[in-house]
Design a protein that fits this description.
Elements: H1 2-13, H2 41-44, H3 51-70, H4 84-88, H5 103-123, H6 135-147, H7 152-171, H8 183-188, H9 194-198, H10 209-222
GO molecular function: DNA binding
Keywords: DNA-binding
Protein name: Integrase SAM-like N-terminal domain-containing protein
């Protein structure tokens, strides 16, 4: 009995167990694995656009990527690498720093700006490049976010991303974007209530079950519970 169980175990752990099955042989996959799965037009929410419109939107996103990459300070670690903290030293003090210094921030800004550009492309005529983006479109987008009951934090994050896109565009030579996001747009952003920021504290909105599970999991990595 033990010999039979041992053979089954050895077969299961083998690269070529040779199971006699029509759909599953158990053999280890070899060679290059397939790349990232392709995202369909439906998943991108552009399946309602014509082929020409989809290509125009892709070119618009390519314009965005070009200026954002040019304004990015993200690079490999090095001994003398300049950091965002270094850029704040001296006369600059606590003022905002030009450029994008974090890969995570870069991806978040790019994703938010792509969503904004898609909104502009679908709701305004003759949007072919970044030069066609106007301040009124930013206001219309903020109103659209408010109409969809997005939180103040979400709306503020989108406006910040658009501001960084405008900064990148100006550096790329689109001078008209210097005033793309103005004080009126900032005034349109709702003020976040303290209760929304307090979350788990007394009087806050509390945590969802999923959020609590994530907190416990992360705490377990650093503390003995």
């Amino acid at each position: 009995m033990r010999d039979l169980e041992l053979k089954k175990l050895q077969r299961a752990l083998s690269d070529k167990p040779g199971y006699e099955s029509k759909y599953f042989s158990g053999e280890k996959k070899r060679g290059k694995q397939t790349g990232k799965p392709k995202i369909s037009d439906k998943q991108r929410r552009i399946d309602h656009l014509s082929s020409k419109q989809r290509h125009e939107l892709i070119r618009l996103h390519a314009d965005l990527d070009r200026v954002m990459v040019a304004n990015s300070k993200v690079s490999r670690s090095a001994a003398n690498k300049q950091t965002k903290r270094d850029s704040k030293k001296g006369n600059n003090g606590n003022l905002g720093v030009d450029g994008i210094w974090s890969s995570v921030t870069f991806e978040r800004y790019k994703k938010s700006c792509r969503t904004f550009l898609k909104f502009c492309f679908e709701n305004f005529d003759s949007i072919r490049s970044l030069r066609d983006i106007r301040p009124k479109m930013v206001g219309a987008y903020v109103n659209d976010l408010k109409a969809r009951n997005c939180s103040a934090k979400t709306i503020s994050a989108y406006v910040s991303a658009i501001e960084k896109m405008a900064e990148s565009s100006v550096k790329a030579g689109i001078k008209s974007h210097a005033g793309l996001v103005n004080s009126k747009h900032r005034e349109m952003v709702p003020t976040a209530r303290k209760a929304e920021r307090r979350r788990g504290r007394e009087g806050g909105t509390g945590y969802s079950l999923r959020e609590a599970q994530v907190i416990i999991k992360q705490a377990g990595k650093h503390y003995s519970i």
